[in-house]
Write a sequence for this structure.
């Protein structure tokens, strides 16, 4: 998917309304869905979290984290965290839009910001938090028919998404946010998925 195709489809449709119960005592956090153009195709930047972290250790995630008192707003939080975690310069970021806030089981309410990036320097990982930085072609994670869903009854969800890519398994909040991005960009395919259980 090219930059122009993505921007056209992202701005063409209103974001789908996702109904979630009102949650109290969730701490605000934010992430960047950072899209990088390579060979006329967009890739999404992801990290594998360090195995030593307290929350979501070893999982694949977006750059981001919890809001700090000195952050101006949640976008500032996402940009600061991306700079700390992967060395992304704030001047290399262009805001496209945002998705709905996404609650997670670790008691955070995550606001995902969709951005285009044009980094002028290589990524540099924060070794205590990030085990690896990698990219995935955006087209690979936006096809709902490649999404697996596990149905359950806990927390605020009745299903958990899994998105396999090569030797990796994207799941949890990262897969859920990518699923919501896919449903935004391709609303005509919202009902597509592969069941993991009955």
């Amino acid at each position: 998917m090219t930059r122009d195709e993505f921007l056209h489809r992202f701005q063409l449709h209103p974001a789908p309304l996702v109904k979630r119960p009102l949650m109290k005592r969730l701490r605000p956090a934010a992430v960047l869905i950072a899209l990088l153009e390579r060979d006329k195709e967009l890739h999404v930047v992801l990290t594998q979290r360090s195995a030593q972290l307290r929350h979501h250790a070893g999982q694949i995630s977006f750059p981001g984290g919890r809001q700090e008192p000195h952050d101006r707003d949640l976008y500032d939080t996402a940009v600061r965290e991306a700079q700390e975690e992967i060395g992304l310069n704030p001047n290399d970021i262009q805001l496209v839009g945002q998705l709905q806030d996404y609650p997670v089981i670790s008691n955070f309410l995550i606001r995902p910001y969709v951005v285009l990036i044009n980094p002028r320097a290589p990524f540099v990982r924060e070794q205590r938090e990030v085990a690896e930085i990698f990219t995935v072609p955006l087209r690979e994670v936006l096809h709902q028919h490649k999404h697996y869903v596990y149905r359950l009854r806990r927390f605020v969800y009745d299903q958990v998404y899994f998105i396999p890519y090569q030797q990796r398994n994207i799941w949890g909040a990262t897969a859920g946010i990518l699923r919501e991005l896919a449903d935004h960009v391709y609303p005509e395919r919202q009902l597509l998925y592969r069941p993991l259980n009955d």
In short: The radius of gyration is 16 Å. Helices lie at 3-12, 74-86, 138-141, 172-185.
